[in-house]
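Data availability (excerpt). The following record was deposited with the supplementary files.
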Amino acid sequence: MKTILVTGFSGVLGSAILKIIENQNDAVVLLGGRKTNKDSHYHFDVNDNQSVQKLIKETRPELVYNLLGSMSANWEDSFKSNCDLTHTLLEETTKTNNRCRVVLIGSAAEYGVVKPEENPISEYYEPNPVSTYGLTKLIQTKIARKFIANGADIVIARVFNLLGPEMNRNLFIGSIQAQIQLVKNGQKDYLTVGNLTEMRDYISVTNAAELIVRIAERGQSGEIYNVGSGKPTSIEHILQQMLAEENLSEIPIKVNENIVSAGGTTLPLIFADMTKTHALLDG
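Predicted structure:
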């Protein structure tokens, strides 16, 4: 039986991955997170490296899905969760079991601002992040490179824009979800949005989870794999879909051009080249 550890299991992506791997008959799935609850016996504090070390020593996993991270614009918070935590986790898994495979979650924010004609963006595109989140995720990737060079078994899933329930409010989807709830509660009678003409690569949380599990199973150690739909979709189209689902298509919309995405800048177009990832689906 393979021992699988999932950190950050309570998030939308972690929950989706759990639904897939908990049905695997040859695996024992262990959960680790910031909070202890009835579903988890393993608590760790991201501000305490010894707590993370203890988690790995106690569970001795053969596969780790590290889904814990921060989208905060605060440098210390993001660095601690996205970089320092990753370094400690990789250091301890290497000591405990150098054959342990670790799946790290990267982000399209690592690519930064790209020119429309450079799309679709492949994993070989030179990253140039322009946000705290993108920068700390790229540092996470570089930390992984250090361990890979010394024989660690690590794959990186570089995730584009997710579509799912209860998304982070720093993201466009999460912001709209929160505003829709206020409208339904009678606390607001309009929506505030930023530039709706930008186009992104949106993928459902369920589909993203399926790709990440396949990357864990078949990905080549040391490689980065895009996780997206491979198609651009306008933010306006996504907004109209969300409103239609809630029967709120007639709600007034106010555009504030000063509102930017979690990436920290405007970006007309970005979508993933999925050739490398889709090759894992064959056979």
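Summary of structural features: The CA atoms of residues 129 and 145 lie 18 Å apart.
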